[in-house]
Amino acid sequence: MLKKRLIGVITVKNGLAVQSIGYQRYLPLGEPWCLAENLDRWGVDEILVMSIDRSGQSIGPDFQLISSLTKAKLTTPLIYGGGISNKNDA
Question: What pLDDT score does 4 carry?
């Protein structure tokens, strides 16, 4: 039998974690690193951070966000998406 995995998702828009309401409005939740620390403490298997405003604007990955998440010293594997358009960005 396959093991079930719990993946925490943090949606980021303009540097803040948000909750999407019908993909039209966004409710701010706070700093992404704070939510990541909570998910890490709660024991999720992976944390997915999606920066939803980076790809549409073609401005590349949010390296400042990634840096702030690495300073949080998470023990949970972290996945980042958003603004990656070529192998140099990755």
Answer: 87
